[in-house]
Amino acid sequence: MIQVKNLSKHYPDKIALDDISLDFPAEETTAIVGPSGSGKSTLLQALNLLERPNSGLLTIDDLHLDLANPLTNNQILQIRQKTAMVFQEKALFTHLTVLKNLTEGPIKVQKKSKAAAEKKAQELLEQFGMTELKNRYPYQLSGGQQQRVAILRALAMEPKYLLLDEPTSALDPELEAQVLRVLKDLAQKNTSMIIVTHNMSFAEQVADQIVFIDNGSVGYQGPTDGFFHSTETRIKKFLGAMSF
């Protein structure tokens, strides 16, 4: 489980996260939703310390950090070894084939053998029906294919938790559907995922729990069904604005 207690992040002109406490269970999918600029991405990136909160406690399994204190490089590394991040931008290594994109991290960072890294990469490509892409370069892929490769590249590191920051927001609806099918498959396999998303239909279908962030604070944490059938005025207004 990932847990944050009293997490705060302040900028000179804005409070991005205001004393947030949340639990993110392992082997479940949590969707983080909310209006633009509410602090969703800041919260997600705080979980693996890409964003450094000003204060609060962060627990990932057996690791416990007081974020008000300076952190060592080893502490940061320990957190990031348990997580992998996928962003809106695909950010693949443009000079490497798909296969080498998937093996670069395990070989260079985790010091796995080339054979072991390639075996894992081949398994992932087969699992998601993407074997035919393995020798292509990113410029030879569609946007949806690139984002699916980015997700597999994160999975190749075998993280305990997969963090995704609006992974389909830069895609058109057809390509978005390709990526969402991969994420739905991962959710059905009880992958531990935390996803910032604007796609309410996807969140309703796939998430085990919803976290609603509004103006840097938690407006809701709980079962997906409870969120989408909430009688709370603010949640109803948000959901109404997301449909047409």
From TrEMBL:
Pfam families: ABC_tran. The keyword Nucleotide-binding applies. InterPro entries: AAA+_ATPase, ABC_ATPase_HisP-typ, ABC_transporter-like_ATP-bd, ABC_transporter-like_CS, MetN_ABC_transporter-like, P-loop_NTPase. Residues 2-240 form the ABC transporter domain. Keywords: ATP-binding, Cell membrane, Membrane, Nucleotide-binding, Transport. It is found in: Cell membrane. It comes from the Bacteria. It is a peripheral membrane protein. One of its GO terms (molecular function) is ATP binding. This is Amino acid ABC transporter ATP-binding protein. The keyword NAD does not apply.
